[in-house]
C-alpha cells in the first residue's frame, strides 16, 4: 500500500500514520514500540499454546475483478521460532530483514527475494501449516456480485463519510475476520495481537477488529517494510502478502517471464485446489483441515443490504447467495479450452 499523507519513508518516527496514532491512544499511549520491545511484547511473554497473533493483508486482481483478504494466524508460542525461519529460511540465504519481499515484484529465480519467497511457500506447505504453527484464511470477494447501488439505496445509512464503498470494504474485512476465527475454532479472546498492513482503511479496520476481538487485543497498523515499522514483525506481513499473491495468481494468467510467481503457484497448487472442492475442503482427515482455508463471497448479487450489513455468519452459512468454494483455476480453464476449442 502507498504511504498515507504525512508519512515520510526516511524517518521511522514519521512512519506512524493517523490510524496508528489512534490505535496507540486506544492502548494507553503505548505508541510505536522498538523492534526488541515489539518482539518481546508479542511473542516472548505469556507463551500459551492456544494464544494467537494475527496479520492481515489484501490483494486485488483487476482481470478477475476479485479482492482478496488474507489472515495469517501465528501460534504465539511458536512465533519466535517461525520468525527465525522466515528471516533465514535456508542456510545459504542471509538474514533478509532489510529486504522487503513483495509478491508483485517477484520475477526471475536468481535473486535472494525470489529464493526466499519460494522457501516460504515450501515451508508453509510442508511444515508451518501442517504442524499447526501457522494458519491461513483467504476470503476472495467477487466484486462482480457486489451490488453497490442496492446498498446505496437501502436506506440503512445516511449520506456522508465514510463512503458506501468504504462501508462495504470494512464489512468484508469484518466478515473475513469472523469467518477465519470460526473456521479455525479460535476464541477471539485468544488473539493477543492483530496487525494489519498500513493503509487508507486503518481506523476502520481498527474499529472492526476491536468489535470482533475485544479490548484485550493489541490492534495496530503496521508497515510491511521493516525499516519503516522498526520491527522484524513486518516479515509476517510479507509472508501474508506472498501467500495471498500466490492464491490470487492461481486464478489469473501469469506473464511468461515472471518465473518466481509461477513457481509459487505450482508450489501451493495442491493445497489451494483442495479448497475448491467441498469433498476435500471439509474432509477432517485432510492434513490441512482447519489450518488453511479459501472461501469466496458473495455467490450472487441477490444478497440484500440487510443480509450483507446485519446478518451473522450462521445466516451466511445457510444462504445460497453468500459463501461458496467451487471455482476453476486458470490452469483448469486453459486446459478445458485446449481440449474443447471454441472454433
Describe this structure in words.
Helix 4 (about 110-130) runs parallel beside helix 10, helix 6 packs parallel to helix 7 and helix 9 crosses helix 10 (about 260-275). The chain has helices spanning about 20-25, 35-45, 80-85, 110-130, 150, 165-185, 200-215, 225-230, 235-250, 260-275, 280, 305-310, 315-320, 330-340; strands at about 50-60, 65-75, 135-140, 190-195, 220, 290-295. It starts with 17 loop residues before the first helix and ends with a helix. By secondary structure, it is of the alpha/beta class. Strands 5-4-1-2-3-6 form a six-stranded mixed beta sheet, with helices on both faces. A hairpin with a 4-residue loop joins strand 1 (about 50-60) and strand 2. Helix content is about 40%, strand content about 15%. The protein has one domain (about 20-340). Mean pLDDT is about 80; it is low at about 1-35. It has 14 helices and six strands.
Amino acid at each position: 500500500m502507498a504511504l498515507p499523507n504525512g508519512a515520510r519513508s526516511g524517518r521511522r518516527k514519521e512512519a506512524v500514520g493517523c490510524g496508528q496514532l489512534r490505535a496507540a491512544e486506544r492502548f494507553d499511549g503505548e505508541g510505536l514500540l522498538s523492534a526488541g520491545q515489539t518482539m518481546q511484547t508479542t511473542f516472548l511473554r505469556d507463551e500459551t499454546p492456544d494464544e494467537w497473533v494475527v496479520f492481515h493483508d489484501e490483494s486485488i486482481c483487476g482481470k478477475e475483478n476479485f479482492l482478496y483478504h488474507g489472515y495469517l494466524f501465528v501460534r504465539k508460542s511458536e512465533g519466535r521460532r517461525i520468525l527465525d525461519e522466515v528471516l533465514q529460511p535456508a542456510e545459504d540465504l542471509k538474514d533478509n530483514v532489510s529486504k522487503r519481499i513483495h509478491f508483485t515484484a517477484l520475477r526471475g529465480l536468481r535473486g535472494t527475494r525470489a529464493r526466499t519467497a519460494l522457501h516460504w511457500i515450501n515451508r508453509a506447505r510442508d511444515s508451518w501449516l501442517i504442524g499447526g504453527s501457522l494458519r491461513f484464511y483467504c476470503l476472495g470477494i467477487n466484486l462482480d456480485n457486489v451490488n453497490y447501488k442496492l446498498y446505496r439505496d437501502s436506506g440503512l445509512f445516511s449520506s456522508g463519510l465514510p463512503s458506501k464503498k468504504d462501508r462495504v470494504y470494512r464489512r468484508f474485512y469484518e466478515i473475513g475476520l469472523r469467518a477465519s476465527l470460526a473456521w479455525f475454532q479460535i476464541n477471539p479472546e485468544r488473539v493477543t495481537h492483530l496487525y494489519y498492513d498500513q493503509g487508507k482503511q486503518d481506523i476502520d479496520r481498527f474499529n472492526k477488529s476491536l468489535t470482533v476481538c475485544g479490548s484485550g487485543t493489541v490492534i495496530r497498523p503496521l508497515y510491511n517494510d521493516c525499516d519503516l515499522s522498526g520491527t522484524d514483525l513486518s516479515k509476517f506481513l510479507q509472508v501474508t502478502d506472498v501467500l495471498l499473491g500466490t492464491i490470487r495468481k492461481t486464478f489469473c494468467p501469469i506473464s511468461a517471464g515472471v518465473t518466481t510467481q509461477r513457481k509459487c503457484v505450482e508450489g501451493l497448487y495442491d493445497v489451494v485446489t483442495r479448497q475448491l472442492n467441498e469433498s476435500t475442503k471439509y474432509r477432517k482427515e485432510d492434513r490441512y483441515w482447519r489450518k488453511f482455508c479459501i472461501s469466496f463471497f458473495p455467490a450472487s448479487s441477490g444478497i440484500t443490504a440487510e443480509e450483507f450489513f446485519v446478518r451473522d455468519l450462521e445466516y451466511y452459512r445457510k444462504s445460497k447467495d453468500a459463501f461458496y468454494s467451487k471455482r476453476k483455476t486458470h490452469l483448469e480453464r486453459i486446459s478445458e479450452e485446449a481440449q474443447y476449442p471454441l472454433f
